[in-house]
Structures are given as C-alpha cells and as structure tokens.
Amino acid sequence: MTPGASSSRSPAPPEDRDAPVIAVDCNGADLGPGEVAAGAAIAAGRGARVLLFGPAAELGEPSPGVEIVDAPVSIAKAEDPVAAVRSTPQASIVRAAQAVAEGRAQALVCAGGTGAALAAGTFNIKRARGIYRPALAIPLPVPHHPVTLLDVGANAETRREHMVQFAFMGAALARTVLGVQRPRVGLLSNGEEATRGSALVLETYAELHERAGAGIDAFEFIGNVEGGDVVSGRADVIVTDGFTGNVALKLMEGVSQTMLGAVREAAMSSRRAKLGGALLRGALRGFRDEIDPEASGGAYLLGLRRLGVVPHGRFTRAGFAQAILRAERGAREDIVAQTHDALEQAGALRRSPVSAPDASLRQTG
Amino acid sequence: MTPGASSSRSPAPPEDRDAPVIAVDCNGADLGPGEVAAGAAIAAGRGARVLLFGPAAELGEPSPGVEIVDAPVSIAKAEDPVAAVRSTPQASIVRAAQAVAEGRAQALVCAGGTGAALAAGTFNIKRARGIYRPALAIPLPVPHHPVTLLDVGANAETRREHMVQFAFMGAALARTVLGVQRPRVGLLSNGEEATRGSALVLETYAELHERAGAGIDAFEFIGNVEGGDVVSGRADVIVTDGFTGNVALKLMEGVSQTMLGAVREAAMSSRRAKLGGALLRGALRGFRDEIDPEASGGAYLLGLRRLGVVPHGRFTRAGFAQAILRAERGAREDIVAQTHDALEQAGALRRSPVSAPDASLRQTG
Fold first, then answer.
1. If you measure CA to CA, which chain A residue comes closest to B284?
2. CA distances from B312 to A101, A225, B112 (A)
3. A283 vs B267: CB contact, 8 Å cut-off?
4. A75, A85 contact by CB (below 8 A)
5. ipTM greater than 0.95, yes or no?
6. Which of A140, B138, B211, B217 has the fewest other C-beta atoms within 10 Å?
C-alpha cells in the first residue's frame, strides 16, 4: 500500500456478511499504528470486519475483512482532547467516530486514549437515549475474580441517578461482552453496612435497594462493598463515581507494579536469588497471564448510542485484536439496546425532553 | 498478678521521670491482651512509662515503668462503638481515654480498633482547640517511599476547611512522629492538573494553593497527586476525604495481599517452583521488612487534645511496642501544640464559639 491510498476493501468471508463493522482508530499506540493494524488482521482472521483509520503508509497491506481509510492526523497526545476534537475534524478518531455515527460501523475502538475517545464519541456518536452520562468501565484482571469497575474517570462529579444507570450499564457490559449471566453488582463504600457511605452512596444505595426489592432482572444488587472487595470476588461489577474510580484504578495499577517490581528486584539481588527467580518463572507465568490487562480488551466507553472500547496505548497486537473482538461481540449482542431495555423496564431512563435522541448537536453531556 | 489486683506501680528510672505517660488499652488484640502487655514491657525497656488498661489476670507481672489498671471489660468487638462507649464507662478503652483526659497520661494507645478509639477519644479527650474534625492517618509502608494518608475513615463527609486542617495535621504527624523535616503534602485527585478533581478537591486545592503562595512554614504543598502517587514517592503526606481514603486503604491492602498470595501460591505449585521460592526467600525478606505495617505503629488519631495511636489488632508485641514509642514521641514533641501553632500562624483555626477551650468539662489543655 502506498501513501495516500484511501481504501482497499477486501470482502469479508460470505458467512460474515452481516457481522458488525468495527471502526478502529490506529493512532496513539505506543508501538505505532502498524501494531493496531496487525491486531485488526488477527481479529479479521477470526471473522471480524474492520474499518481502519490511520496513516495508510504505516498500516501495511490490508488483510481480508479489513478496509483502510487514510487518516494520518492524530490528536492522541492532545492535552485538551475536547478542544482537539472540536478543532480537528480530520483527526483519525473523529473520522472513526463519524463512521459509527453515520452507520458505516457499529462500534468504535480507539488506541488513542480515553480522553479523545470520550470526546469524539460524545460529540459524534452521542449519548444513548435516556442515558444521563457516559461512563468508563474497566474489567480488572484480578486473579480468579475478574471484576468490572465503573466509572473510572468520565465524570468527576456524579449524581445518584447517574450511579443507578452505571449499575445497569456495567451489568449489560458484564453480560453481553464479558459473558457473566446475572452479574452481582456492588456499590463501593467505606463499609459494608447500609448506613455507611458518602451522601451520594447513601442515596444510591437507597434507590438500588428499593429497586432490588421490587425485582431487577438485569443484575443482582449485593449492596455496599469495600475497597478490598475489588479483589475479593464478591462482585462482578462495582459501581462508583468517576473521582473515586479513577483514584482506585491508578492506585491499584501503582500497587501492582510496585509489588511486581519489588519481587523482580529481589530476584536480581544475588546469584542465589537469580536462580530462585529463574526456577519460579514458569509457575508465575499462569499468574501473569491471569493479570494480563490485554485479555479483556481495555476500557469500555458505555452510555453512547454505540459501544466504544479503548485498549491501552501500550497494548500489543493481541490486545488490540481482543478489543476489536469484544467490540464486535458488544455490537452483535446489542449492548446499547439491552441497557436501554433494562433501564426502561426499571423506569430508570432519563425522562427530560433534552434527552430526546435528536435534542443536541454538540452537547457535552 | 492475681485477678482483681488494681495497681502495682513500678517507678520509672530516674532519668525518665519527666517522660510522658502513655495510656494503653490492651483489649482487642488478636493475640490477646498479654501480647499488648508484652509490647508495653519492650517499650518500657526503652524508657517509656505506660499505664496499662485490661484484664489484669491476663497481663502478667508488670515490668519496671509499667503500671497495670485492672479493666477487664472490652468493647473492642462492639458493632456500634459510639453506643458502646456511651453505655460502658467501665470499658478499658473508656478508662484509658479518661486517664488521658484527666492528665494521668499524655497519649492514648488502643489495640481495640479505630472505631472504639475514635469514639472514646472524641468523648473523653475531646477535639483540640480550633480543630473541626479528628482524622485517622495511616503511614503506609511503601517500599523506599513511606507516605502518610489521611483521612482514612474518621469522616465520610468532609468539607474544604476540614481538608485544609488535615494537611496541617498530617504534616505535624510526619514531622514530629515520623521524622520528616518539611513534609511534601499532596492532594489526592483524579489528575495532576489544578483543574482536575471533585468540587471538594477543587475548593481545597484553591485554598492550599493560595496559602502556599503566601508561604506555609509547616509543609510544602505540591498540588494534586494521583492514585498511583500513593506508591510513587512524590509526597510524604497525602490528604483526602475519609470516604476516598478508606476505599484507597482497603483496596491497597487487598491488592498487596492478593499479589503476595499469588506469588506464594506459584511458589508452592511444583517441586521446581518450591525450590525457587526457597532460594528467593532471603532476598524477599528485606522487602517484607520494608512493607511491615508494624514498623510505623499503626494508625494515628489526630485532632484531639492528645495524640492517639491505634495499632492493628493483628500486631505482635513488636508492633504494640512501636505504637507506644511513637505515641511517646508525639507527646514529647507535642504534636498537638505544633499543629495548633501552625494552624494559628496560617489563620486556619476554627473560630466558632463552640470551639472555645472552655466548652467542655474534661479538657486537658
């Protein structure tokens, strides 16, 4: 493929003609856009149909099932993603989001960071009908007990009705994309008792508890959970505000890295320790696989009219492939419709007129 | 010592006649009250003077420098510590707190949990003059980078003026008890930029930033820090609200235990791995020592008229000894007066009439 080439569609295998198309922004990956394209090729090999946005010159020849759109402009490193999205319509993430908004693709995958994905998604794909706020959800690779935490940073200020919707959104993700039949949803608090929590948590608890009493089909509400329950396996989904969720996520990453670094350091400290580390390496591999963040595809952007997936910029092709396959699964299972139906059944949709689907052109949520 | 014996004072060595007396509640320790008494003996051997409250029959013979007060009633496991403190004046923690309130001791150490210590301390020792709210501070044993986090759970709802005082209280702890000359104080947020944070964080940032511009002697304000900075070494003290702090503390404990457990599990999974684990064990010992929570004595109850220290119930005698020695250091260096002076100099004392020094009956100065 030569620079400037804009499209070179290879038809998907006949059996996948109805498969959702996934719009993928290649810019922003640490290993370069080519690594994302390589991930797309892997996903396409498993039947995915991909629309790839990025610098065509760096993306190589398209595989069957992959279409390349030359979109070399990147805003992945922009300090202010909202401003960058507004001012750069030719940016790859904006074009990818537009493809989803216009129905040329059914889900968005963005290697360029959550800020850009959130801004481009909100402006172009827009909030789903009846949703107050989009949220970022992270499936955490906890050994033996994977758990999805949301919101991890889309909203610094959160209200009760947002939190209640996050519970439904997180449950729909766990069910449709992660394969948990009836997710157990907990509310992150500073104690398990119903009386513990910030004002926001107390209000949210009261509403979810009342709804659970009346019957919630979409998930099982297990009440308050504590910080330690992020790794205890008590919950499949943990709901919190974007401030606490962001602090918790970064703390968890920091503690994990510090502990692994300390073990690694110890295993380099003497010949004896080096030998011990070498003998232990094989046994630790299973653990490393289990805590591999690439396995779940990245962060999920929920609450828009289509699903967004944001693999981490440091992922390899395997992680990008996984992100694309998860996005496809979410689109196939129609996570947006499932979320909407569950919220409608529970009477938890936003009712104000401004939430009508065509009410806003450039709303910021 | 026989049951019912009430006191058997052994005089402190002459050179320690002016040393502060530390009131210690022995009830609530996992290893039993005798383990706390053993810790007191170790501390007394290093010059501490201790007033020990607990079941005399289980505390053994008092060492020199240790006086035993028979107080067998324990409320350490009470579900509602506030109610238990009110209804049980004979409880060991209440009697220990009263000894501090009446000036028979100059600091409180409580093996029976933070809830009981907070309730008994607040009711008996009372808030220090000009302080809005007591706070719980935890020195976290991060390898190479110890950091003190507060509030970790004394207050689920926190206001700006509380947070500002927490910064001064945490800095005074780091200086007087932990030996950090000019602590770097950070504000926990969902991003480093001054524009990031909940409404509470934005308000607190603005006030601390303004104060820092005018000059703060007590500490260096380094602005917002993220969850990962709890382990990065950027700050000596990290200020947050009691809700976020509690979630962060429990999450950190959970992640650490999960990681250590996974490494241990891997090291038991085969003969080869067992041999590797055995060879690595010595090298990991230094790391284990560094992350030993007993080394810093436990949690600190700040904002009362005297210092409180709450060692974890699972501590051994070494940890209880450390708690007593840290409490003595805090009393000697007069952390309460240092906090007050710094807040007064900064004009950050509470001015409302209810904070006047004669508002309560059991004040100790």
1. A266
2. 55, 21, 8
3. yes
4. yes
5. no
6. B217
